[in-house]
Design brief:
The protein has about 90 residues and is mainly alpha-helical. Helix content is about 55%, strand content about 10%. It has one domain. Strands 1-2 form a two-stranded parallel ribbon.
C-alpha cells in the first residue's frame, strides 16, 4: 500500500513538473527529501514513476534531467541557497 501511495505522489509530481517545464523551460529539474535517500533502488523507481506521470513533452523537453538533491529534508532550502549564491557571484554581488 505504501508503494502505491508513493506511485500516486510521483505521478502528481510528474504533472507538476510538466507545468513547470511548460512555464519556465528549465534545463533540469531537482527533487529532494529524505525518502529519496532510503535506497538507490527506490530512488530509481521513484524517478521513473515521475517520468511516467509526465505527459509527452516537446522534443526539446523530452529528456530533461531530473536530479536528486542530497541532504534529505533540508534539500530544498540548501538547493535554493546554493542557486542564490551562484546567481549572486555571477552578478558580482558576492
Amino acid at each position: 500500500m505504501s508503494k502505491e501511495i508513493f506511485r500516486v505522489e510521483a505521478h502528481a509530481l510528474g504533472l507538476f513538473f510538466d507545468e513547470m517545464v511548460n512555464t519556465f523551460d528549465p534545463d533540469a529539474l531537482i527533487i529532494g527529501g529524505g525518502v529519496l535517500e532510503t535506497s538507490l533502488e527506490f530512488q530509481r523507481w521513484f524517478l521513473a514513476e515521475i517520468r511516467v506521470g509526465m505527459p509527452t513533452q516537446r522534443a526539446e523537453q523530452a529528456n530533461i534531467p531530473i536530479h536528486v538533491m542530497p541532504n534529505g529534508d533540508t534539500a530544498g532550502a540548501r538547493g535554493a541557497a546554493l542557486e542564490a549564491l551562484k546567481l549572486a557571484r555571477q552578478s558580482g554581488l558576492a
